[in-house]
Amino acid sequence: MNRIKESLPAFAVIAVLLAAWWVIVIETRSVIFPTPWQVVTGTAELIKDGTLWRHIGASLMRVGTGFSLAVLIAVPLGLWLGWVKGAYSTLNPLFQILRPISPIAWIPLAILWFGVGNASPIYLIFISSVFPMIVQTTAGVHTIERRYLRAAQNFGVSRYTLFRQVVIPAVLPQIIVGMRIGLGVAWLVVVAAEMIALRSGLGYLIIDSRNAGNRYDLVIAGMIIIGLIGLLLDGVMRLLEGLKSVRWRYAH
Q: How wide is the angle at C-alpha 186 spanned by C-alphas 181 and 188, nearest 5°?
């Protein structure tokens, strides 16, 4: 009941925006821009012929593959950079140079190296999400309170055990934050990549709807679906933040 009450203001704002959207389209007598109801009927059309699920599945497959590869590389690498001072001083400048480069800037190279198949967007997702996770994981190791390490050393804990049982659990909250940021960026990038180099996915759905008869009802439907899926993905990452194994560092 409390959650419903907390959500009421958000629903009220959405309702007001939908009403304003509808009134503006009607008053301006736009023949191109759709009303909310036309977007609903367009979405129903996509659901009925199965097109929507095919595009959603294609986008999620690419994001899942690229993001998983980024996690497998970024988390161990970030832990190593945070734990080994020499590795950090050697590699961190390189990552700080590569990190600010927009993922969109990699699109021409991705197409050149991997062609116009699934490999290009997967690479773009990987390159866009790996750096936030590396940086966040490394920062997490650097911000571990010294008292944890001193307490373990006082008990004669080996360096390996200290890393496995103290450092990794302590840095888990930062890892989850990095994953959350990386997943958000990955979802943005796959849509952009699909608009340019592919013939499936939500990004392709938007650009194809625009080119094939100015179907702006489907364009808006695709945009809303992208936002809703992004909200769902972020919600999953927020659930991970609530796990006891992740929150123990902040226990009193």
A: 100
How do the pLDDT tens digits run along the chain, 252 residues long? 666 677 778 788 888 888 888 888 888 887 788 888 989 998 898 899 888 999 999 999 999 999 999 999 999 999 989 888 888 889 888 888 888 888 888 888 888 888 878 888 899 999 999 999 999 999 888 887 777 667 766 767 777 777 777 778 888 888 888 898 999 899 988 888 887 767 888 888 888 888 877 788 889 999 999 999 999 998 888 887 776 666 555 444
Q: From CA 46, how far away is CA 28, in angstroms rounded?
A: 27
Asked if residue 217 lies in contact with residue 148, where contact means CB atoms within 8 angstroms, the answer is no
Q: Which two tokens stand for residue 223?
A: 């945009």
Give whole-number Cα distances, 83 to 90, 155, 176, 208, in Å: 13, 20, 18, 48
C-alpha to C-alpha distance for 207 and 219, rounded to whole angstroms: 7
The count of other CB atoms within 10 Å of the CB of residue 41 is 13
Residue 15 CA from chain centroid, whole number:
27
Rounded CA-CA distance 229/56 in Å is 9
pTM here is 0.84
115: which 2 tokens? Answer: 């062609």
